[in-house]
Amino acid sequence: MLFLLATAIVTSALEPEIIEEIDVAPVGDDVALPPESDYVDFAIPPEPSREQLKFLNQCLLKITQECAKEVFTYMFENLTVTEECCGVLVKMGEPCHISLVKTIFSIPEYKEKASLGIPRSKQVWNKCALVVGPNASPIPPEN
Predict the structure, then answer these.
(1) Going by C-beta distance under 8 Å and a sequence separation of 6 or more, which residues neighbour residue 1?
(2) What is the Cα–Cα distance from 131 to 95, expressed in whole angstroms?
(3) Residue 125 has what DSSP assignment?
(4) Which pLDDT score is estimated for 141?
(5) Less crowded by CB within 10 Å, the N or C end of the chain?
(6) Euclidean distance between the first and final Cα of the chain, in Å?
């Protein structure tokens, strides 16, 4: 659901020729970097810029539909995210995870669920970071 929803947002906002131009080669240690340095702030963005949409598209290419579904479902229900999907999530990277979560909660039908979903999205990241190992840093809770 998350994968399909985020894919629809990204692809509907980008023109087809732009999507073909996106460089999907790994960045750094195979983790995409966000267009802004303040990606830990969970403030829900108004309308994503072209640069943000390109970044989101790169993120979506790094997670399987099944793992995206597990992570999305976890944000609303007490379900488990498999160790395999934790590995995929952590490899996708914290900036991608946060950006996709912010995008989901900018959609009108999910805005009202942000108070539940955003803390749970941090929780799933932190659980997966523990499962995968010390290379992933935890997302600090909001004060």
Answers:
(1) 68, 69, 72, 73
(2) 18
(3) H
(4) 62
(5) C
(6) 30
Beta strand ranges found along 41-97 (DSSP E): none
Report d(CA 97, CA 36) in Å as an integer. Answer: 14
Residue 130 has pLDDT above 70, yes or no: yes
pLDDT reading at 2 higher than 90: no
Tokens representing residue 25 in the block? 């080669």
CA distance 111 to 109: 6
Q: What is the mean pLDDT of residues 17-23?
A: 36
Angstrom distance (rounded) from CA 32 to CA 80? 25
Q: Which amino acid is at 115?
A: S
CA pseudo-torsion sign 94, 36, 33, 105: positive
